[in-house]
Amino acid sequence: MNKIDPQFGIKLKKYGAVDFTACYNCGNCTAVCSLSTQDSSFPREMVRYGVMGMQEEISASLKPWECYYCGECSEHCPQTANPGELMQALRRWLTAKYDWTGLSGLLYKSLPLSIFAFLLLAAGVIGYGAYENFNLAKIMHYGHLFEMISIGAVFAIILLPNIFRMWNFTVLKPGSKAGIGIYFKAMGELFIHMFTQKRALGCDDNQFRWFEHFILVLGYLSLLFTTVVLDWFGTSNQIIIAIGYLFSAIVFLVTIDFVSGRIKRKKEISKYSQPSDWFFVIWLFLMGVTAFVVRLFIDLELIVDNSWIYYFHLIILVQWALIIVPFGKWTHFMYRSFAMYFARVKELAKK
Amino acid sequence: MNKKLGIYICHCGGNISDYVDVEKVKKAIENEEGVAMAKTTMFACADSNQKEMVEDIKSNGLDGVIVASCSPKLHQITFRAVTERAGLNKYNYVHANIREQASWAHSDDKAGATEKAIHIVKAAIAKVRYAESLEPIKIKSKKAVAVFGAGVAGMKAAIELANMGSEVFLVEREFFVGGRTAQWDSVCTSNQSGGEIVSELYEKIKNHKNIILYTGAEAESYSGSIGDFHLKIRIKPSFVKSEFKKENIEKAISVCPVEVDDEFEFNLKKRKAIYQNKESEFPKRPVIDNINCTRCGECEKVCENIDFSQKEETVDLHVGSILMATGFDPYLPETGEFGFNAIDNVITLSQFQRLVSASNKELIYNGKKIKNIAYIYCVGSRQSEGENKFCSRYCCTTTIHSSIEAKKKFPGIFNFHFTRGIRTYGKQEALYHESSKMGDIYLQSYENDPPVVDIQNGKTIVKINDILTGTKEMMVEADLVVLVTGMTPRAENSIGSLFKLPKGRDKFFNEIHMKLRPVETVIDGITIAGTCQGPKNIAESVNSALSAATKSFSYVSKGELELEPIVAEVDKDTCTWCGICSEACPFDAIKKVDYNGKAVAVINNSNCKGCGMCLPVCPSDSIELIAFSNKEIESMIKLLAKD
């Protein structure tokens, strides 16, 4: 027996859900969704679970991640109950649910707290700069070191346990029995979806959005590789320098389009931006643009006189690596691909 | 006998001519005796043909007309009017039905259909030869209407009738007017209070010179018929003098030892045997409830305005029409039905509405603060088994409205609606939208799997297999369970029995035709309005009240009524009064009178509907039906039986 919990609906509104309780269960949303199938049908079911406050069902479900938010459901909703935004809110709520530290939830729900965290890290960077007497070379060295350490630490301490929790909620607890072989067999799904977001192509009229997103992911990952592994800021290899420019340019050019989309609010997906959405796209843009300018200043030998640009870049980088990546929207990169992986595992286990 | 006849055979655009050879029909009858002209026509009812008919009648000097076409139900009135326009008495028109009776009935046999059509037309010719010019029966009609029931429908109807110029007697059984509307503190979707609506209507009634209001009054007997009803009205005494001092009455109420359930509060509260009107009820006066008063005399000791010497009065009313607006009773659940009377926090919708309006700041029932409210819909309505198969129309909207009101008035409340599908039809849909947007939760099941109210660990729970959540079992701990009870016909139906008003299968008063004659009853001159006819909301009740008022006024407006002259006629010479006809008459139209020293039957023309039930039972064959006389019918039969 499920106890109806209307408080959950109130909570979901803090995660960005809008008017979803107005749903009168016509199912138009599910009917128009091009990703919904008979075996895995959404979003109506998820809207209903949200209204009823069935947290266990929601946390055991991978459906929120199976939606790529084309917004057609919201366009066709006769009650303007915004099922698309509800799915988005569920993804935020799940992100918080998976996070063992609980920080994700706090940051999603409270803008002041998020701003405080950003300011705290900015102050930390500036404080560290002062501690080092703004010795640029030294700080750039430690900056590079920070990149490498933070990637490893965030992954080991936050992301890996959270993926494990996600697996527990969605595969283990619901009682799916999959042998180790199945996990190997399904592994392909993980990488395909992680690097191509193939499923998003199934959304109607979504090819351009998919393409933008695709090159942004590739650009971002390549930039990460170029700066961390190939030490873009420290190298004198002309080829590495050139591809670094290319990748950072891709990152900030594509994000310009994403940010302007959210400002214009023409599409359903960009109508209801939450602070976490703004932070994600703006910080990605700033990462790209500051990295580009820092390298440019190095090449034009302006960096010594304009070292502030590097500190600015470092602040953005630290905030990105310690807030947005472990607790913010960055995680959807992982959860989406793991969701497709787990879905495949469950499917194979059923057979 | 030697009439000049004109006959039209209609194609009905193929409806007839596809199966009946209309030309053959025309040829078969055009040489019948007296037929001056015969024509076929594509659509006899078309404007152009009607004009042509008028010309034909005038230029050929016709004195009998037949149109062979559809059912007389559809166009007899049309063609009677055509003959009238051509200066002929309309009863010289005879309708022959060759569509429903020939072409449609025998679409598999064209030759047979044609032959039958010929017979039908020939029979009509036989009848029209004997047709007589008739004049409508004229009777006097008293320009006064009695309206029974002073709820929102009765009051509105009374005002409308009075404004049109009729004298109105408004008769209310209770001591106060306002009916159910007075009991609702806030009505949707206007968000007025019932009291505001009632007081607005009462002011008009009080000040209207054409309206006389009787409260505490009931009809005792009635006689007569349309245009000429005689009613005897019994008026209960209030046992309080018309001049009274407020403080005296308050004293009397405080000393009265008799406490009974207050029906206005749906028994949520108590009142004394002496009590006053509620704020939303009128007139403002104290009354003593004679049924419960023990005559202990305590009130007389403290209040000089009490007068137990008051006697019941009777008044005779003479009216031309009667309008019934006697309202409904809310469905009362059986003990144990969804925990009613068995679990102490289960109440009805009516009680809930009183509870919400009586509570301030906090919603408290049985000393407990209410947070979760479960509403169970369609209790006593839409039952596949049992009498109440109907939807009560008002309850979905009212429940949602009340739940919104409750949520706004008492923040922190959660509403859970256990429905069988929401029916907030028309503009009321906006309320449903508002409610669900506010976060009210709606669940649904079918009739065969209703929600269950139960006690679990000392708490009242409501559970349902919710079809909107994949038929999963959902439950809520409810501090209050509201049974959404619908409307039922009045249990106390003495007035319906008095007037012999027919009831439908649902036991509400029945109209003649749901769509085309929605406020008339088979008793000529009696109309029905509001919820005595079936479930309605206030707006719908007022709509029907206005249309019943208009209909009733049409009976009395001219002071005279024209009735259809097709009635039964008794041959007083051969009648020997056996009374069988009177028993057979469904309209109470036959009475015994004295005629030249013997008893004979006489027909009351204003009651007779010309149904013909009295004809075959008469042992001396003394009754004829005008326009369907023996010689007319026999001539038709002879013709039909010929070949």
Keyword list:
heterodimer, A: 351 residues, mainly alpha, Fumarate Reductase Iron-sulfur Protein, Chain B, domain 2, 2 domains, B: 643 residues, alpha/beta, Rossmann fold, FAD/NAD(P)-binding domain, 5-stranded parallel β-sheet, 17 helices, 34 strands, 26% strand, globular
The portion of residues forming beta strands of chain B comes to 25-35%
Radius of gyration of chain B: 31 Å
Cα-based radius of gyration of chain A, to the nearest Å: 21 Å
What proportion strand of chain A? under 5%
Biggest beta sheet summary of chain A:
none
Word description of this protein:
The complex is a heterodimer of chains A (351) and B (643). Chain A has 351 residues and is mainly alpha-helical. Chain A folds into 2 domains: 6-98, Alpha-helical ferredoxin (Fumarate Reductase Iron-sulfur Protein, Chain B, domain 2); 103-350, no CATH class. Chain A is 70% helix and 1% strand. Chain A has 17 helices and 1 strand. The longest helix of chain A is centred in the middle third of the chain and has 37 residues, at 136-172. Chain A is globular. Chain B is globular. Chain B starts with a strand and ends with a helix. Chain B is built from 17 helices and 34 strands. Chain B folds into 5 domains: 5-130, Rossmann fold; 144-236 and 312-327 and 493-556, FAD/NAD(P)-binding domain (3-Layer(bba) Sandwich); 246-302, no CATH class; 331-488, FAD/NAD(P)-binding domain; 564-626, Alpha-Beta Plaits. By secondary structure, chain B is α/β, with parallel strands linked by helices. The A-B interface holds A 1-4, 6, 9-10, 19, 21-25, 45, 48-49, 51-52, 54, 79 and B 414, 416, 422, 432-433, 436-444, 463, 466, 468-470, 472-477.
